[in-house]
Amino acid sequence: MKLTLIILAALISLIGVSVFIVQGSRNSAITYEETVTTAKSDVEVQLHRRVNLLTELADCVASYNRHEAETLKQVIAQRGIGMSDKEAGDIELQIKAVAEQYPDLKAEKNYGKFMVELSTTENLVAQHKKAYNASVRAYRRHCRSFPANIFLGWLGYEMQEFEYFHSEADDAKPMKLFKDI
Description:
Layout: H1 2-79, H2 85-89, H3 91-99, H4 107-144, H5 148-154, H6 169-172
């Protein structure tokens, strides 16, 4: 009688452990699915961020560039530089023009900041794409590996067909943000 109870308890324990192992494979697959979905969303967020941020920055830099160009034209016009060939040829006027203080131009610094932000944004997009592909790889590996593939089949789990992120021509194509300058 004791032996029968021990065998029965061992059998129930074995069945319980097996159920947890089988269900654990399904739970892991679901966790990997969520990781892939989150990673895909992160890539989309970064792509939207890139378009919005870079468009705004380009508009800002272009506006400042136009402002500086207009300011410089006004300073030159007010000082009478280049008004006629006679004035342009006058050495005294040329020396005076070189010695004058022109406005401190900052467009070059803005372009530098823009390029740093562009580089940072592109690196973020690349990192998120890499993380997405890694999560797809982990999900596929889990669902196809033994014994998870058998357990998932028993449970009727349908493997999702997540595709790796490949850069497309539209994604890598320059945005031509300064076309009106």
